[in-house]
Amino acid sequence: MATGQRFHIDRDGHSVTVQVSGGHGTVEILVDGKVVAYRRELGRETAVLDAELPDDPPRPFRILIAPVAGVGEPPLCLMERDHTRYLLPLTPQPPRPDRPALRGLGLGLGPIGVVRVLRRRIRRIRRMHRVPGRRH
Questions:
Q1: What is the enclosing helix (H) or strand (E) of 124?
Q2: Which of 12, 51, 56, 106 has the fewest CB neighbours in a 10 Å radius?
Q3: Strand partners of residue 76
Q4: Which pTM was predicted?
Q5: Reported confidence tier of residue 70, pLDDT bands at 50, 70, 90
Q6: Count of C-beta atoms within a 10 Å radius of residue 47
Q7: C-alpha distances out from residue 59 to 62, 74, 80, Å
Q8: ∠ at Cα 97 (47, 11), nearest 5°?
Q9: Which domains does the chain have, with CATH numbers?
Q10: What confidence score (pLDDT) does residue 24 get?
Q11: Tens digits of per-residue pLDDT, 109-120?
Q12: Over 90: is that where the pLDDT of 38 sits?
């Protein structure tokens, strides 16, 4: 999720996380790290997603995601269970394991990697600007 919001709460021994991502607003609800509900797009109205806590018997809950007026404002996220609503706080996104932490020049590369990237780009520019019939 490049751009998105993450909401998290711990309730009754379970970790509940709601991830809203991207331009169209794909939503995932995770309970104890496992996806239990998913929605492709969020509209301009309040979105309602139903899920269950994995107890015996399973306990249903509902997540409400309401857009907030204002450009760039994160939506309001609530968990409703047993006629009680809990506000899920916005939490920072964890670093993605498939991407190294940004370092060096902000390219996610060390100094050697930066040199490699620059060499590749110079070669690419030279290839694009070759004059036919001239040896390089």
A1: helix 111-128
A2: 56
A3: 66
A4: 0.63
A5: low
A6: 19
A7: 10, 28, 11
A8: 45
A9: 4-91 (2.40.128.180), 100-130 (no CATH)
A10: 64
A11: 566 777 888 888
A12: no
**For residues 104 and 98, is the Cβ–Cβ distance under 8 A?**
no
Please, are residues 53 and 59 in contact by the beta-carbon 8 Å criterion?
A: yes
Residue 27 and residue 44: Cα distance in Å, rounded?
Answer: 14
Token match 């190294």: residue? 100
Joined tokens for residue 23? 């331009």
Strand partners, 59: 53
The residue type at 134: R
How far is the C-alpha of 106 from the C-alpha of 20, rounded, in Å? 25
At 107 the pLDDT is: 53
Q: Show the tokens assigned to 103.
A: 């370092």
> Do 18 and 63 form a contact (C-beta atoms < 8 A)?
yes
Position 127: which residue type? R
